[in-house]
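Inputs:
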Amino acid sequence: MIRDLNEVFHGRARLGIMTLLSSLGQADFSTLKERLELTDGNLGAQIRVLEEAGYVKVEKSFVGRKPRTTMTPTAAGRKAFRAYLDRLEEVIEAARQG
Amino acid sequence: MERQEALEQVEYMKRLIEDTSFRVSVGYPIFLMWGVIWVIGYIGGVVAPEAVKPWVWPVLLVAAFVGHAIDARSHRYRVNPPTALTRRMFRINVLLAAATFLLPAVLGLEGAVMGATSADQTQLAFSIGFGPFYIPFMVGLIYVVNGIFLGAEFVRIGTWLMVSSVTATIVGVTAGASAAFVWMAVTGGGSLLLTGILLRNSWLSERSAVATGTA
């Protein structure tokens, strides 16, 4: 049953990104990097996967002279993540009953 | 095995949410403590016997120091190690705290050195009447700045403390110092207590959500 889970979220890094974005509403690159203890390269690659899937919107801006990258979950991303959580619940519930 | 994998995913998400959201709400005892201190301190400034009044705030500040030490000790094994963000916040807070205490001194010295209205300016800068409203204003400013990193709750209470302090100064000028002290006890102390209670409720519900697996 766990094979049916959305592969985009199943990796630890992308699961962490979506968890934090769902809980915080949005987050910048440095916050995600710090919380998830990922390297710049790894985090950038994981965000790209989520962006290409249409689950995350990436916005680049400047705060003073410093560039700032902010990630926000899209409506499709929230929906897909909720569905992923529902599937996880089902897996746990099935194992509990079985 | 599948269940184990799913449980690990859920556990990981819970830990991330806990690490993020507990940071603010876990500070509720500090808000409650400062709320009580403000109420006692400002009401004490009105009702305490004259001989006791000068000792009210020093005793409360020692109590606050002890309270902070106990609180820090209780979190020793729970808080995350310092990060770039917390180090930056610490530096900003040290600068703001230094500015809080240096500004009156600079104003006083400037008045004394330049000679212009020196007596009044120095009196204003160091007077007992100035501190009770100026320091809460600066505390409010520190909350607002910290709110940029910690969240809207801090910005809200900081703004409220700043507005309370400015209003208290006006109340003090128009209705006398006692009225201003009561105002600060109610608005400043009251809002700190209210924030403490709200954060405590939030902390309890987060704990309960994590314990029952609904977080």
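The CA atoms of residues 2 and 84 of chain A lie 10 Å apart. Flag for discussion at group meeting.
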